[in-house]
Automatic annotation (TrEMBL):
SUPFAM superfamilies: P-loop containing nucleoside triphosphate hydrolases (SSF52540), Winged helix' DNA-binding domain (SSF46785). It comes from Herbiconiux moechotypicola. Residues 261-345 are annotated as: Head domain (RuvB-H). Belongs to the RuvB family. The RuvA-RuvB-RuvC complex processes Holliday junction (HJ) DNA during genetic recombination and DNA repair, while the RuvA-RuvB complex plays an important role in the rescue of blocked DNA replication forks via replication fork reversal (RFR). RuvA specifically binds to HJ cruciform DNA, conferring on it an open structure. The RuvB hexamer acts as an ATP-dependent pump, pulling dsDNA into and through the RuvAB complex. RuvB forms 2 homohexamers on either side of HJ DNA bound by 1 or 2 RuvA tetramers; 4 subunits per hexamer contact DNA at a time. It comes from the Bacteria. Its main location: cytoplasm. This is Holliday junction branch migration complex subunit RuvB. InterPro entries: AAA+_ATPase, AAA_lid_4, DNA_helicase_Holl-junc_RuvB, P-loop_NTPase, RuvB-like_N, RuvB_wg_C, WH-like_DNA-bd_sf, WH_DNA-bd_sf. The lineage of its organism: Bacteria, Bacillati, Actinomycetota, Actinomycetes, Micrococcales. Keywords: ATP-binding, Cytoplasm, DNA damage, DNA recombination, DNA repair, DNA-binding, Helicase, Hydrolase, Nucleotide-binding. The gene is ruvB. Mg(2+) binds at T73. DNA binds at R316, R321. It is found in: Cytoplasm. GO terms for molecular function: helicase activity.
């Protein structure tokens, strides 16, 4: 099954190519003060870090939950920077065995911040090891097999775990409970994205007007990663055209990249038109929908749906996914049952 959705799609909120990772690195805010939006989470994190500093201990473990591209990695980096501690980055898929995690944990220096991205994708055996490590800064290493197996306890340096997940619901309770603080990152408001783009434009040396900023922000799916990426495309367009990033340039550039006024991309449109045309507006189950659009169910659930639900085009019901009235209206499709019986929407 070939995916309908590539990580480099212009409005894909998922992690991008090497070139984009370098581009993102240059734009990352370095402190909580520079981090735009998520006011509540910023306040809560600041308090947690200040309290730890006063007590001269490692800050509590932190879980960051939310859709991709909202700033989880950036916040983990900020936690390390603000507390002046080294940072180790790894991810759930890289931890396939308990031994992979033991190697990371046993090499941490005192106070280090360990960031595990996509923590819900870590191996089960490693999860169990992590419980003890988080609670007691200790792990048990099993040596040998069967009746002769023994466990050797190993003390760890105290560390702060920052876990990131797009699927908080998939984390087992014992793991979730061991985080001292869970932050739920929300999609950003347009005004917040305007500030993200304004800051990025300054760093990139792009001259951009107020209307153009709002236009990019309102097509960025509430996601800073997408806002920065659209700005990059607009900058390229302005460069080639030999002018500033005006509203007309933004509109032309985003039209070229097929980003509509709501910021919907190919996969969003594929999901919506499948529900509308193939399933007459739903309800349709997630796995059926995934097969119909040729995409992983997880991508649909964690990347596509949260935004479609947020902007009111789709609703999730116990019987399946259903297009809302606004969904029908946005795509200008007429419900087959209404067409048959001549009802108005
Ligand atoms: N609040 C913010 N203010 C300014 N820029 C931000 C903010 N949040 C994210 N960004 C920018 O958006 C980009 C993506 O952020 P980041 O990598 O932290 O997202 P993420 O949630 O970790 O995504 P993923 O789950 O895919 O790893 C970065 O370039 C970062 O600079």
């Amino acid at each position: 099954m070939s995916p309908a959705f590539e990580p480099d799609d212009v409005v894909s909120p998922v992690a991008a190519s090497e070139a984009e990772i370098a581009f993102e690195g240059a734009l990352r805010p370095r402190s909580l003060a520079e981090f735009v939006g998520q006011k509540k989470v910023r306040g809560q994190l600041q308090l947690l870090l200040d309290a730890a500093a006063i007590q001269q201990r490692t800050p509590d473990h932190i879980l960051l939950a939310g859709p991709p591209g909202l700033g989880k990695t950036t916040l983990a980096m900020i936690v390390a920077q603000e507390t002046d501690r080294p940072l180790r980055l790894t991810s759930g898929p890289a931890i396939q065995h308990a031994g992979d995690l033991a190697a990371v944990l046993s090499s941490l220096v005192p106070g280090e911040v360990l960031f595990i991205d996509e923590i819900h994708r870590m191996a089960r055996s490693a999860e169990e090891m992590l419980y003890l490590a988080m609670e007691d800064f200790r792990i048990d290493i099993m040596v040998g097999k069967g009746a002769g197996a023994t466990s050797i306890p190993l003390d760890l340096a105290p560390f702060t775990l920052v876990g990131a997940t797009t699927r908080a619901g998939l984390l087992p309770n014992p793991l979730r409970d061991r985080f001292g603080f869970t932050a739920h990152l929300e999609f950003y408001e347009t005004e917040e994205l305007v500030r993200v783009i304004e800051r990025a434009a300054q760093l990139l040396g792009v001259t951009i007007g107020a209307e153009a900023l709002v236009e990019i922000a309102s097509r960025s799916r509430g996601t800073p990663r997408i806002a920065n990426r659209l700005l990059r495309r607009v900058r390229d367009y302005a460069l080639v055209e030999g002018g500033d990033a005006t509203l007309a340039v933004v509109q032309a550039a985003l039209h070229l990249y097929d980003v509509d006024e709501l910021g919907l991309d190919r996969l969003d449109r594929a999901v919506m038109t499948t529900i509308l045309q193939r399933f007459d507006g739903g309800p349709v189950g997630l796995s059926t929908l995934a097969v119909s659009v040729g995409e992983e169910a997880e991508t649909i659930e964690s990347v596509v749906e949260p935004f479609l639900v947020r902007i009111g085009l789709l609703s999730r019901t116990p019987r399946g996914r259903v297009a809302t009235k606004a969904g029908w209206a946005h795509f200008g499709v007429v419900r087959q049952s209404d067409a048959l019986f001549g009802d108005d929407l």
